[in-house]
Amino acid sequence: MAFRAIEFRVTSTFWRDKLQFIYGVPVVSGTTKRLSAKDYIKIETDRNQLPIEPTVGQQWKVVGDFTVTQVDRNQRLYNDIRFEYPDRLEIMLPQTDEGFIRFISNEIDNVSDEKARNLWTAFGRNVYDILKKEHKSQILSVQGFGETSTNSLIQGFKKFTNLRYCNWLAKYKVPLHVQRRVIKYHSDLTIKVIKNNPYELVTFGMSFKEVDHIALTQFNVSQETDTRLAASVRQAMTTLCQKRGHTYINNKKKLTEEIAGLVGLGFVDNALEAGKRLATYITFNQLPNNFHHHDRLLIETVVARHIFQLITKSPNTRGAHNKAYETALNELNYELTNKQKDAVRTSLYNYISLITGGAGTGKMTVTRVVLRAYAEMGYIITALALSGRAAMRLHESIRIPTSTIAKFLYQEPPLDDYDIEGNELKHIIVIYESSMVDIVCLYRIINHITPNCHLLFVGDPHQLPPIGLGLVLSELDNVDSIKKTHLDIVKRQEASSGIPEYSQSIRNGQIPSELTTGAIEFHNTESYETVVDLYCDNPDNSMVVAATKVSVDKINIQLQTRINSDSPEFSYQDKDGQWYSVSGSESRGQFASLHLRLNDPVIFIQNNYDAKYQNGSLGILTNIKQDNTSGTYGSVRLVANGDEINLTLPMLDHLRAAYAITLHKAQGSQFENCIVYLDRTPMIDRSWLYTAVTRSEEALHIVGTKDRFSKAVRTDSAFSQRNTHLSWLIEKYIALMVHKNDAA
Questions:
Q1: Can you give the pTM of this predicted structure?
Q2: CA quadruple 54, 60, 65, 69: dihedral positive or negative?
Q3: What backbone torsions phi and psi does residue 60 show, to the nearest 5 degrees?
């Protein structure tokens, strides 16, 4: 083992899970010249420790311990220099003409070798300062550069503008996602701010213990400083909030215990005082025992104020709304119930409204009529859902373009009040399955829309609460001033299955009088074998839903063994000839031996809009042939539309087996034959069971003990135990307005 710093040029790179693999050749420092034709670099590192995503052609410096192995290739000996988790990796900006030309032409679209050479000839090393300051006129003066290539160059170079700060932060092992947040917020002040207060990194998502180690050992921070103690309070509150999705803490004992675990019992009182002085938390006179996390309170306050402003608005075109309502109703070839008609009118006559109800009550039917009426009035409709599957179901129902919330926020421009000709634009946002939406998500949506944009929330507040912080739908449902319609008459054809009545009993905390009834069959066992047998009875139309990743993996392994064990395993070969199997496991520990096979059902767990799949997209693994020419490793045929998705190497980490999936991945979807497995976990409460039961369209099998089923029905839903402040804040704004009006 030796220690050394080496500059190298990247020749290939890929990642799996949290690891980045980088291959390259050593170069003479500051040049592109190879140091030796016999030496090759191989690096394995944590992706989070990189200052930027590596790409082929870039030059980097690696610092750390390495080993050298001689390898015989075609009767010639080569040196494989291998670094595993090096101390530091830095990207280098080329300082020679040839290095710059190769770097720019590889990294930037619309900039050829010739154009890059002209840039270097014109400015030399000063070109980096010109690009950083975005001096467009100077670039346009260079031969070959027009508007398109100049804009591409400036935009493409932005990711390298903050290289100095990225490398500095990476030196202290600050994760990549934290680096990006810090630099985006503090820009040129990044190094100064962090040197002055390293605990600022806690604000951007780094753990207190990681930052504390850096601060105490690298920056000689005193243990008694206010910034350190306040940061411990922030971390303690963040930890407690994230465990249950709270936005505030109402248990001082637990809070002090959490702080003591970070800085010691002797510092707790001083930490709470420092936290209050530095506004890490806030308390209200009316609610003195509630400790409000500053960031979460700010988010809830912004959302509450926006909602309040929508409540107080009223459309001034009631005649146009009535006409649009009649037009939309006349186009139907069936009759709405009176309550469904009320829901349509309520949604048209208010800037914010809710349509809630259980499975089969016609929420989507009403939504379709509402949006048809809004279209008649010239509104621009944006239909959103949190998951890809829910967005697809929304599209199938309302028959207009839909999007995931993530795509809307990060790939679509913010909504405008006026077009380029000055004409007013009218908008409505509909959020489907809005019980899945957390407070941070709604905060981002509000910051992406106009103040006059109508909001329509559609969902069931009794389903699973969001994975993230706070609550939205159930909190809005608690505000009397928000107009809402709760649909409770089952109209769907599947009412004869008995599932709607069954789910209604569970939602009301009542154990159904018959556990097996209609199309519902209860199996009083916790045997995985029963689940497997039920699936195999109807494999083409079945889905298993469970609570824990461990159960999902165990069931997937058994079903793959029973149904698809003869199919070839999905594997690929890297450039060194090493073979890797593609894991289909939800958990990455004990059950990582679950390897995908040809013809397995699979689910994507990330969004990839370029490749046209979304988080929750289901498919069949139809091809596992590696094609090095095209860079593909097989393909998946999507269940929803039959599209074939060609798989690249990074996509392999987005795949999981999908004979069984967790309920969170199933939320927003329904299946012809749903098999619900009741795990031995406190995660299963009334809202979990209710949500799971309503995933079924025709046939429902529940596998678990009667005691576990009964306990779940009796256990209050998770959302009822979540500390949130949104409805209280909205009501406070309304009370202040009423008081102000009374005083006037």
A1: 0.82
A2: positive
A3: -130, 165
